[in-house]
Amino acid sequence: MVAPARPQFVLFGSSIVQLSFGHGGWGAHLSDIYSRKADIMLRGYYGWNSRRALQVLNEVFPKDASTHPSLVIVYFGGNDSMGPHSSGLGPHVPLEEYIENMRKILIHIQGLCEKIRIIVLSCPPVNEEKVRGNTSGVFSELVRTNELCQSYSEACIKLCKELDVKVIDLFTALQKKDDWMNACFTDGIHLAAEGSKIVVKEILSVLKEADWEPSLHWKSLPTEFAEDSPYDLVAADGKTTLNPSEWTFYREIQWD
Fold it and tell me: What is the reported pTM?
């Protein structure tokens, strides 16, 4: 642990979380947006479903921890929604069990601290043709369909409304982009840079509109060590300095 303490935002989920710092990923964008404001902590596990998340829930989020996150962004569902394998192996989790697993995960996180906030990402769509084309000798057949993705997404959204948890409908949000099947994914499943930009926009929108106290939107959080200093860059007048603490001009996107 390093000081001074900042709010902690934990990204908890499967591969869409683990890979969120690559390919212009949404986790990397959040780390940049919240630099000097909050620490973005990655707890992503490639290939995991909600069953495996439950197995480690108390280790990732121990109830007796001295500090708890200010925000947890949760994503499970894509692997759960895969079609079942005839062997009984694999990541598939029946829809009813998936919802109960997610209920346990969210209730556990809610119980950590009165002021902890949660945003859930629902199951996104896939590029079915590309997924089928990626089949190799390494894996058994991958059954990923948008019909399954949509059913898990809708069930997740319904659960979140029941628990009064903020939820982002990724299944719908990604499909609003032109040529989404090619633009949003690297392999038909995992997010490319364009897909991640949509996720960031949706997360920031939730954070801006939420009536949370304190607000966790990046423009509302204080910037660490933001005071003026004679050691800052000298201005053109040669007499004053320029404080760069709030500069954002270097960003590809000027986020709201």
Answer: 0.95
